[in-house]
Amino acid sequence: MAASPLRCRRQLAGDLLRSLYRQRFSTVTYNDDGTNPSFVHPTSVVHPNAIIGQGISIGPFCTVGSSVVLGNDCKLHPGSHVLGNTKLGDKCILMSGAVVGDNIPGKTIIGCNNVIGHHAVVGIKCQDMKYKEGNECFLQVGDNNEIREHVSIHRSSKPSDRTVIGDNNLIMGSCHIAHDCKVGSNNIFANSTLFAGHVSVEDHAHTAGAIVVHQFCNVGSFCFIGGGSVVSQDVPKYTLVAGDRAELRGLNLEGLRRGGFSVTEIRSLRAAYRKIFMPTKASPGGIEDRLADVERHEDLSLVPAVLSFVQSIRESLKEDRRGICKFRSWSFS
After folding, report:
1. What local confidence, expressed as pLDDT, does residue 330 receive?
2. How many CB atoms lie within 10 A of CB 307?
3. In terms of Cα–Cα distance, which of 235, 264, 258 is closest to 247?
4. Annotated active-site residue in 89, 197, 220, 255
């Protein structure tokens, strides 16, 4: 049955109104073949020198600076801003209020498929008193990171260094990563995790909420930091620490299981931990002697994870490092 004239008029009127609305309230640009359009709301300020990829969506009241490069399929929610010499990879999402980059010398590079949460600030000037105005400073972030609301990540404090974030990290709300930090991949930082300047975090580390880490500390792979901890020395690989000041409480057994370590590897690590940090009267000597005993052990010396554990401790005991978190009943004598 043919459509009635009234229905046809309603359809035409609806199409006309939608067309007028799009022309009035948005700017849509198409590629030459008419595919993958970009949307820019007319209340946003996009500098003509900015390089904009395909399939971009820029919502109301956003700012895109003159030196900005936006990759394909990026989405800027209302009130988000990209400033300074900043490059965003493909498929990045900025939630409302997020600020990426700063109008200071240097550069901020964000990889692909990152989510930057509401009112997060990423790639701004550091809070280091040694920073000199006019110096270049840098931040580099990898791919597939989720950076939640109110997170702050600062650029480096000097031209010869840079703040670095790896891939596949979950950085929960109100975390802070200060200047010159080096963060690896596959880490989980719970709310209000605070890293001071020059902190190094390896891979697969997990922090509970409201913890602070002193500047220049190292946080090892597959470790766990308990909630409310104050970490003032290095956290060796595979361990669990907690407290103020944080102390070694054993191995991060659950993290090791989830990380795919075999039963044999975990048993070997437990044996090595007991030899190093829970010595008996039959095993006199200092920490270096106990580390050497583990390295000479007939079975433990054949397990790569154990040797990596020992090496992590040795590195932290060097003169230019801060030492490791103490064990309650352990002394260096």
Report:
1. 46
2. 15
3. 235
4. 197
